[in-house]
Amino acid sequence: MEYRYLGDSGLKISEITYGNWLTHGSQIENDAATACVRAALDAGITTFDTADVYANGAAETVLGEALKGERRASLEILTKVYWPTGPKGPNDSGLSRKHIMESIDASLTRLQTDYVDVYQAHRYDTETPLEETMRAFADVVRAGKAHYIGVSEWTAEQVRAGHALATELGIQLVSNQPQYSMLWRVIEAEVVPTSAELGVSQVVFSPIAQGVLTGKYRPGAELPSGSRATDEKGGANTIKRFLNDETLTRVQQLEPIAADLGLSMAQLAVAWVLQNDNVAAAIIGASRPEQVAENAKASGVKLEPEVMKRIDEALGDVVDHDPARTAMNAPKTRSS
Question: Which of 34, 63, 179, 309 is most buried, judging by how many CB atoms fall within 10 Å of its CB?
Answer without folding.
Answer: 63
